[in-house]
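Inputs:
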Amino acid sequence: MNNNHLKQCDKLVPASYIKQAEQSCTSINNLISHLLEHKKIPEDPWRSDIIEALLSSLSQMDSNNFLSSCGAGEREGRIFSELVASRNYRLAHGVGRSGDVTAVQPKAVGSSILNQLCTRIVLDIIRQVGAETATSCIIVPMATGMTLLLCFLTLRTSRPKAKYIIWPRIDQKSCFKSMISAGFEPVVIENKLKGDELRTDLEMIKEKVKHLGSENVLCIHSTTSCFAPRVPDRLEEIAKICKENDIPHIVNNAYGLQSSKCMHLLQQAARLGRVDAFVQSCDKNLLVPVGGAIVASFNKDGFIENVASTYAGRASASPAIDLLITSLQMGLSGLKQLLKQRKENYNYLRDEMCKLAEKHGEQLLATPHNPISMAMSLSTLAGMEKHVTEFGSMLFTRNVSGARVVPLDSKKTIGSYSFTGYGSHCDQYKCPYLTVAAAIGMNKDECQLLIKRIDKTFTEIKFKNNSAKNKIPSTITQSSQLNN
Amino acid sequence: MNNNHLKQCDKLVPASYIKQAEQSCTSINNLISHLLEHKKIPEDPWRSDIIEALLSSLSQMDSNNFLSSCGAGEREGRIFSELVASRNYRLAHGVGRSGDVTAVQPKAVGSSILNQLCTRIVLDIIRQVGAETATSCIIVPMATGMTLLLCFLTLRTSRPKAKYIIWPRIDQKSCFKSMISAGFEPVVIENKLKGDELRTDLEMIKEKVKHLGSENVLCIHSTTSCFAPRVPDRLEEIAKICKENDIPHIVNNAYGLQSSKCMHLLQQAARLGRVDAFVQSCDKNLLVPVGGAIVASFNKDGFIENVASTYAGRASASPAIDLLITSLQMGLSGLKQLLKQRKENYNYLRDEMCKLAEKHGEQLLATPHNPISMAMSLSTLAGMEKHVTEFGSMLFTRNVSGARVVPLDSKKTIGSYSFTGYGSHCDQYKCPYLTVAAAIGMNKDECQLLIKRIDKTFTEIKFKNNSAKNKIPSTITQSSQLNN
Amino acid sequence: MNNNHLKQCDKLVPASYIKQAEQSCTSINNLISHLLEHKKIPEDPWRSDIIEALLSSLSQMDSNNFLSSCGAGEREGRIFSELVASRNYRLAHGVGRSGDVTAVQPKAVGSSILNQLCTRIVLDIIRQVGAETATSCIIVPMATGMTLLLCFLTLRTSRPKAKYIIWPRIDQKSCFKSMISAGFEPVVIENKLKGDELRTDLEMIKEKVKHLGSENVLCIHSTTSCFAPRVPDRLEEIAKICKENDIPHIVNNAYGLQSSKCMHLLQQAARLGRVDAFVQSCDKNLLVPVGGAIVASFNKDGFIENVASTYAGRASASPAIDLLITSLQMGLSGLKQLLKQRKENYNYLRDEMCKLAEKHGEQLLATPHNPISMAMSLSTLAGMEKHVTEFGSMLFTRNVSGARVVPLDSKKTIGSYSFTGYGSHCDQYKCPYLTVAAAIGMNKDECQLLIKRIDKTFTEIKFKNNSAKNKIPSTITQSSQLNN
Amino acid sequence: MNNNHLKQCDKLVPASYIKQAEQSCTSINNLISHLLEHKKIPEDPWRSDIIEALLSSLSQMDSNNFLSSCGAGEREGRIFSELVASRNYRLAHGVGRSGDVTAVQPKAVGSSILNQLCTRIVLDIIRQVGAETATSCIIVPMATGMTLLLCFLTLRTSRPKAKYIIWPRIDQKSCFKSMISAGFEPVVIENKLKGDELRTDLEMIKEKVKHLGSENVLCIHSTTSCFAPRVPDRLEEIAKICKENDIPHIVNNAYGLQSSKCMHLLQQAARLGRVDAFVQSCDKNLLVPVGGAIVASFNKDGFIENVASTYAGRASASPAIDLLITSLQMGLSGLKQLLKQRKENYNYLRDEMCKLAEKHGEQLLATPHNPISMAMSLSTLAGMEKHVTEFGSMLFTRNVSGARVVPLDSKKTIGSYSFTGYGSHCDQYKCPYLTVAAAIGMNKDECQLLIKRIDKTFTEIKFKNNSAKNKIPSTITQSSQLNN
């Protein structure tokens, strides 16, 4: 309904009423104008119908939705199913063009605006949560691992001789695969145990750089967000090494957007040294379904643009649609509230896990550098690795998802590489442990439920463990399960 | 509503009525059983509410939707926005795991089933449309170009020495980028002009293989679907060369699923020679939004599985959701109807374009090997390249999208590679031309509209062209536009 | 997106692209302008997203959706559930005001426009399908029966002495209840058998008018659409009687909008005599869910307005929303196509039923005046009334709904009134029969299925009937059912 | 997905994973079982996808959604538009049958279950909020006024001589129209001023009963929820009069469900005297769109059933769908929270209005018996009635909806009845006033906004008023508006 339409309604209802309605239309139009003007996450949440009206307007700007369109190509954005059309807001052309995933599509102006707008809003979010001097970002419709791979492929062009990627070990499979799938050789830097924490071995990095030769190193691939007892890498120092040695620095910030500490680390690293790009997951940080990642940078050296043009072809618009909707519906106020709540949950969970550990004769590992997750020793079960594993299964069966139980002797081969102590980020941690995270979107009820279930399950597994040691027949153990 | 629920309803309505309703529930359950049993595209279309009920059931099997779930990890599938949750059917975990894009996720059983089921249905479709002996496929949430790149990265592991990709020229940017982004050196095989057609230069391929050495060639990268006057590559012969020289063969079948001829070519190539994988776009063939591609194979050599495990990390479930919905809503009968209609449109368009060409003193180029697109010479405009380009713009302004107008002298640089005659698949085609396609989903009205608009616009541009030659002031030309 | 918004997008995508998109927005705006200007069913169907955009615009004009609204009353259109909000397009205030169901609500300008617009479109439809001189109509959120009741209540004010309603018998319960619930005494006019048809007894009507005295008769309540062998009332003659005797005439045209014959009858009656109002169901004629009816008139005497102001209070907007969506999505071309298809189905069904009747030694009753339904004798089953009834149940069990099997001896009491031969519109029809309709929206497949199922079921029931007569044990009969 | 389906999925994902998913399905099935078993509003809110799954299951039980249905009637629930189908969950048959709005439809078992279930849940809600001994209720798809009319029509059958309805005056148009549209003569009982409150004149009621004769009185029609300074009728005493005189008693409890005081009044009246039925609006109490009302009773005398069978014909299922969704999504806990919040808002608003009144030299009228609304005198404006009216308009223009400004001298004619002081529930209240309500669903922000806007607007109107008295040119006043 534009102003002409409103005037036409004069014949249906009194003109004075129309005026009141006009005011309302104007205020909604102002909301949209403000968004298009500032390209930032709005302070206050938007109502869902206004978001959908915006998406509908954008989709009308794509050629497949023109009333008199006539498609003579091989890709005309035709959608067979009404269900599919409707759930995609009739945005059929994806984002980007064959040469560049951020390029504007002449056939799909609405989708192009959506993508540009969403990218700008995401950049604003990145700045708001701590990377204040970030200059640009792109959204790619792939998970973190593939996005890291894309960054490595991008670096290759400018470093044709480089074969190695220096990588402080983090036992997360897709990180590792991103390097080998891209055709590079990971140089694993084992972590150093400091107290209970596993920290970056800076000396070893320096040594490797020297030994391999800067020009043969594609980049250093560091990590912020990780599971305790590993803690975020010493980003500042790594960034300095990179700067000094003229080596690119790619940071895996998978779920670090939600932590002001991780973001502060990044910001400092960029200030003091070199950070070429940092990569984060959309789903882990912004509560959207799996499917997209964000590559961001503090520089204006064109790296982000090169990443975009390394992506060969168009991409699904789904991640951008989900992100745009979510950021409008959340608003900056909502986002800040979520971040605040996450911190509170972290503190609550740490305190409760501490009590729980004491109760069971275990201890909460001291990992003050890890702002998101924490670990409790399972020393009681040491030597009975199958009970450690079973503890994990039991938690999963009781609908505790995401809690990781890490035994001591796990081995793993990825490609031609073998790891000892896989899962613990080092060859041999001092004890098996359980690690849990306080991630964004968790609520307090969940924290309480988590504590309760761990308590109950651990009690049970210890009973089993003792029974096994004392060879009490297992039927008794089983019956105790049934009463659960 | 299961049978117990129905029984409980006895207290609300007479039992005899319940029985009738039970019958209906049973028949819908049978539909689902049949799908799960056979894992094929159903013969008849499904109603949209039944499709949504299936998706809703699947989503209830993902841990983020468990009533008593308690998430302690960093990725728990939490969705902030109800709009986003609803448009994704609350399927938040994507598909695949960090090590393999087809792996089953313990946290997301429903999403995993959806992906497996969808993959099996897509395989059935591939067989139904002509690749009868195809053995496996995967759906990847990337466009054709990136998917080709993934195939090349996969081949690298088993051919560590290989640096070259032999590539019969096709002027489509993302195809070319897929090779250079992956870090390989494309060896361009220029096409040979036979009559009006541009065909594969088999001799040159053989020569290059010999010259480079088989072990240095990563693969031959051929193409089926393409814009006339280029025609599909001589797949059978290429496949034989590959077999004889032990070189992998990756086929870009971007929009070839819709053409029985392209599929027949592929099937024959596999029978007579070597085809490692063929890649096709979901959107161009199956009328879903941009976002996914399919890698398929005739072999059981594990290549498809290797591609899946080269993809580092999870992927968006959106392409699989769109594909599943579409194939259920289309049914085999609907698909066949669309393919039939496409062929009819092709014939209709060819005949009408032929008449149009004659009317304007041009000719429809004879490209019998191209089953999807056709080209009309623009010899009238030869020598006035800016009018050729303007003709294209005018068509676009009149909402004709996808028609390509190809001038003679176009130059293009991609990465460090330069092309002459870019767009025409050869250095110098004999005339500028207009090319249009009869793609799946086009309807007859569109064909007629297309002919009409080309006619009108060409008349106009010829008038301009003549005016320019005769230096008639442009105001007259403009006024003729206004009467349009 | 208004023009200012488009201009703002200049910073996100090239201005030339925006121009193309602007064109598209304009063409959609023109569609809406045309609708608001002419207030008629559009010639061509609208796309669903444009319909939803219109509804969304309208809902933004209601005060409950104002961004800064502040509600201090007892009814502020607040909606608790997002699901409910979304399915009602956030239109919460219903239609009408306490004094008049068509009144404009200051608080709900969008809802008011929607209702006015919908009413005008419905009036256009009524004219298009045959009541060319209809002058006004209203949509009421009640079924046909309650709407007739509302008409009777409205007439009471101007005819305070009137106690009787003259009513040519039609065995449809809600018609009858509409009169007694309103507090009037129905004067039943039994139908006369002419050939196979049951037709209006005009003499008896005249006699009753004379006997009761015009001023004591509230109105004559006639019927168009009905089940064969009853046929539409002699509307022209009744209308003349009404005119001559100064008695109002209310026509129950429940599902007559779909039949040009019924509409012609109405138009002629209005031309030659008196028709105060005709009432029709929304769901039966316009393929929307049950819930609304339309009262229409040929006159400008204010009767329709009086009906509107007799309805005490606001009403659900649902019927108007469903009607508006449907008429836009159908378009006049779609409506005409449906009407044409219905006629073809009627002819097809009549021919096939005729063959079927012959095959089974029955006959299709000759009811040429009934344009929608037809009846087949069940003389074979005469005397075995329980088999007649069972035949009906069997058809229902086989998912044939709506087919009516009418035995001879049915009795029914409604309120204090008793009917013999209830269901057959007369005390004693000459044979039991089966009646089926060719209603709007039925497709040819359904017709064929119907014939097939009647054939099969009748064969079976005849076998049972014969078995019963010959006392063959029922087990045999049952086994034949299993093979079905 | 039933258990068989899950088993079939064994071939797609490991059986152990299926087991976990099965658990989740079971817990959701248990939720549904619990609902069907107890037929009460669930304690905790349901998730929207589970609600939609339930609705989808129900709709599959309606014959129009049978896979092999074959419709041969005139009403087969066919829906033309997918939009309409989807927003109505494909529930097309409405509720009730021609003879009874609560009757089960053989053709529409799912809709019938939905309606029965919803009715039972609503009855549970009525009991939970205070009418503990309520025995039955029905949902009717009409607003409060029409529903009262239906009650009066129902009473007529058993009281054929009765012509009068005794009605303590409440200036709400649809209440009054419900009586005259039904054909009865309202006997208006003027309210008595006690302090600031307008209360029921019990003596006058008794006198009228005596004067008219019990048998000539159809019923007493009392009111609970109303705008201050009128307060709820003396229900207990009226109920006793009804009992003693054998006169039916219908209570208009329009928005009283939200107030424990109104509900307590009703419960007491039923305990001590006679209450035949009490009628309430769905939208005003349960935050759904306008469209339905609830008739409830404390008795088992069949009155509710008679009301249901007086409604002639089917009814829209929309109100029941909206109510069912809302009650499931709200849960008892949500409902209680809303009621608690409403009380808090009432207290807050009363305190703030009191301060505001003092500030402006007015007073908050003392109306302790009115639990929902309150009134502030506008004595300052007395004698300048056009300023009183203008004050109302100005509030409305500033998006304050629902606040009523009541001048002294308003006259109104409804039908043949004339009222003086219309709007104030009495011929001449002591001062003009402003009345506002604290209704369910209002939030604290709105309360604060309301106070602020009233303050600002009243300041302005007083300035105008003074200016007018002092004849200051109006331009000054206007400019002050601009600064607003």
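Confidence is low (pLDDT under 50) at residues 472-484 of chain A. Flag for discussion at group meeting.
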